[in-house]
Fold:
Amino acid sequence: MKKLSARRRHPLAALVVLLLALACTGGLYAAFAPADKAQADETAQSLAIDEGKKLYAVGCASCHGTGGQGTTDGPSLVGVGAAAVDFQVGTGRMPAQQPGAQVPRKKVIYSQAEIDQLAAYVASLGAGPVIPTEEQYGPEGADIAEGGELFRTNCAQCHNFTGKGGALTHGKFAPTLEDVDPKHIYEAMQTGPQNMPSFPDTTLSEENKKDIIAYLDAVNGEETESPGGLSLGGLGPVSEGLFGWIFGLGACIAVAVWVAARTAKAKKS
Amino acid sequence: MSTTANTDSRSRGKAPAGERVADWADGRLGIYSLAKANMRKIFPDHWSFMLGEICLYSFIIIILTGVYLTLFFHPSMNEVEYHGSYVPMQGQLMSEAYKSTLEISFDVRGGLLIRQIHHWAAIIFLAGMFVHMMRVFFTGAFRKPREINWLFGFLLFVLGMFTGFTGYSLPDDLLSGTGVRFTQGAILSVPIVGTYISMFLFGGEFPGDDFVARFYSIHILLLPGIMLGLVVGHLILVFYHKHTQFAGPGRTNKNVVGMPLLPVYMAKAGGFFFLVFGVIALIAGIATVNPIWALGPYRADQVSTGAQPDWYMGFAEGLVRAMPGWEINLWGHTLVLGVFIPLVIFGLFLALIAVYPFIESWVTGDKREHHILDRPRNAPTRTAFGVAWITAYMIMLIGGGNDIVATHFHLSINAVTWFVRIGFFAGPVIAFIVTKRICLGLQRRDKDKVLHGRESGIIKRLPHGEFIEVHEPLSQEHMYTLTAHEQYKPAEIGPTVDENGVERKAKSSEKLRAKLSNAYYGEGNQIPKPTVEEYREITSGHGHH
Structure:
């Protein structure tokens, strides 16, 4: 000990202690640090959250609060989940253009990558529904007829028989489901945006949601045939009545005028 | 007569086949005298006189296509599982009625086209009757002797509504089932007897399993049978009364100027039938109507938004949608005013137009026959009344489609409903005043035209520099047409003192009548038509033009 004690004022003593301390921390880190792969994920995730936070601060914070806690202009986003963000921003509803009865669908202004970053940030505020995978909303293996029955039982009272949309009170409305991405339909059922009730998996199972999406694709998709001709908006008797009056009766009257004008009269008056 | 004809022709050799057939028929049916009396029947020419024909032809088309549909439709509410060609319904439980309608639409040859012709023809039939009634109303063609025929026509319209409604309910799809439920609700709202009627009609609680079969016999047998009888009666009366005509030189209350039934009108009417059929078939080939496959089978636990009846029931739908949901609970019974009041208004509002001819003849005291039509402007009060009625009707149609109006014009459904509520009362009043002003304006214009001629558009400069527009005098015929209408004097209460000098109290009905009559014909409610003296004075050289 004397030897050591004698050299403690040696000029190189501090260096030795420093090296020892570094070796010690390094060794401990090497022993206890998480595996390499997980380490990389963590970084990407936190990077996405960071990026999302920046986007959030610019595009969302004015209404939803700087920490997503909500303000008088916008609800709290704690616990809404990534699916809600993907739906709202992915359909162009958010950021909202103006306050009103309901925020309508409009042009999407964020790229999918940015939407994912925003979703990651909002998801980090509290646990909520995640963005579904294609396996969940894809049409494979779905029962279309079953989906139709589920749709008529749960959805048609607001969205009409085949999803053409309908009116709600005070200017609110159930939007048309025409050309809505299956993923967004799934997310809407999951999260219940705006006036829509949510249908979590305990109410409508994953299988049920898949069936409903497949049904909508069959009766209101891009490749849906209309066996009877022009569908007249699929709105039922109101548009049929208008069409019947204007084009049906209108054509009959036009023909009547034409027939009456072709007369055997000797003199035209 | 036929015997002599036969001997004559035999002596000259064999008569042509057609003549022999006609002779044979005449000997048994007496068609010669029938034909002689009616073949040369004269009908006047005007496009608006063909509106009734549109109705008649679409009615015939409905019957023809309806017969085809009955061959494939199963009016049964037995529950079956679907395994047909329409994929989105595979394995679904549904009534046989719905299943057979799907089969008609997808598996029966020409089934969908015939279904669509049938449905479009029904929509056009009712619309045609509406417009035909408007023509008859606004030209005063309902006046004596045609009041009964007006009632026949009215009944046809109302029965047409219910035939249409029962037909729309037959496929037992989700839309029509909702409509039937709506109707059942209206029946239930009738105090005391409502529940009993509903239980009787549906064979127990709604929906039960009877109503399709019952509606079926009502739709294909009972109502069309009555309607067919009424149509025949309607046409016989048109023949018997002879057709009305617009005023014009040579046309009087005692003659009909036009073309004979044979050959002119037979050819025209026959051709027109095929034209109407063509138009309806074309529309049915182009546009979908009631795509029941997209609507799904009816289940009492399901409902869709945008559920409306066909347009002719939209008025009733609107009344119920606009009515606040009032109800009174008394001694354990509920009086559903929110539905019952609309039901009563529905009946009264339709009845109003049905009894109008009698109201008008009572008010005006006019009991003479009329075969010359009025121009709508020359009967301002009647025209204004008709327009007010149509305004209320149309506002209720908007009410019936308030959700569709709201979504498509980006409005609040509450705002639309309030517009309808206020409009139902205010709209007819505004329409009445505006229409009357327009009619009087047009009368003034007619008077001007007769007295001063028509504006020629030629500007003339006088020697002293003044510019004037040259007015050209009308032809004699035109002037006659513009001044042919009669102008009435308002009815008066009559002497209030009888022949003995005793004061007589005027009955309140008399006073009301005098008041109404004044509203029809009093000062300011019609423009006195130009007299011969006025005309002479202006044309004798002292006139300004």
In short: Residues 1-5 of chain B have pLDDT under 50 and may be disordered. Chain B has three domains: 2-38, 42-307+315-374, 438-492+505-542. The CA atoms of residues 18 and 45 of chain B lie 31 Å apart.
